[in-house]
Amino acid sequence: MGPSDAQLPVPAALLAALQTDDWFAGCPAAFQQALREMGHLRRLAPGEPLFARGGQADGLCCVTAGALRVGAHDIEGQAAVLAYLEPYQWFGEISMIDGLPRTHDAVAEVASQVLVVPREGLLSWLEREPGHWRDIARLACRKLRVSFVVLEELAQLPLEERVLRRLRLQAMGYGSRDTARRRVRVAQETLAHMLGVSRQSVNRALKQLEARGALRLHYGEIELLDPIRGAG
């Protein structure tokens, strides 16, 4: 077993960091404690998959360090990125609920660490405490709301506005934060995969947005000059 495969215990001190996520913070204390106690930490090297599309539903997950790309590849091998997950965003609830195979790949963008709560253990706990299924449903509903926003943007908005809205969505942690981050770390190539366009098109849109005063480009990150407005 290599270092990236090791299952590490979850320190109690991590609980406070996990509570910076709106969903986790809204869960009852008993459920928060159960997720921490049942979970283990898994380290991933850059480019290493946490799970693959079609793989077994093995648990509920939360990024605790680094960042993960969630997406898939088309028949020509082109990557499509649906989400870029950072600490302390939770994911994997769809397969957690229905037990069907994973819907997408989850791959470490950089050296990362993920909290994994095994599905079987969590299901057993929820059988004893069924009232907490509502909390799992809240997590799924948050993702569904984000999906509706993205679908609307694809159908109605020009690329420049889609880029800006996706950056604002990223700054809000896909709904996991009360306050948007002012600076977003996401590669233009990744942003292009999210939007289904070329990197050159994203680069042009970013420069147009910078000229408008909506953002400022820095090395390795993008500063949103008005991250709150229109973030949803």
UniProtKB/TrEMBL annotation:
Cyclic nucleotide-binding domain: residues covered: 42-122
SMART domains: cNMP (SM00100), HTH_CRP (SM00419)
Transmembrane regions listed in the UniProt entry: none
Residues annotated as domain HTH crp-type: 157-228
InterPro entries in UniProt: cNMP-bd_dom (IPR000595), cNMP-bd_dom_sf (IPR018490), Env_Response_Regulators (IPR050397), HTH_CRP (IPR012318), RmlC-like_jellyroll (IPR014710), WH-like_DNA-bd_sf (IPR036388), WH_DNA-bd_sf (IPR036390)
Keywords assigned: DNA-binding, Transcription, Transcription regulation
Keyword Transcription: yes
Organism domain of life: Bacteria
Protein name in the entry: Crp/Fnr family transcriptional regulator
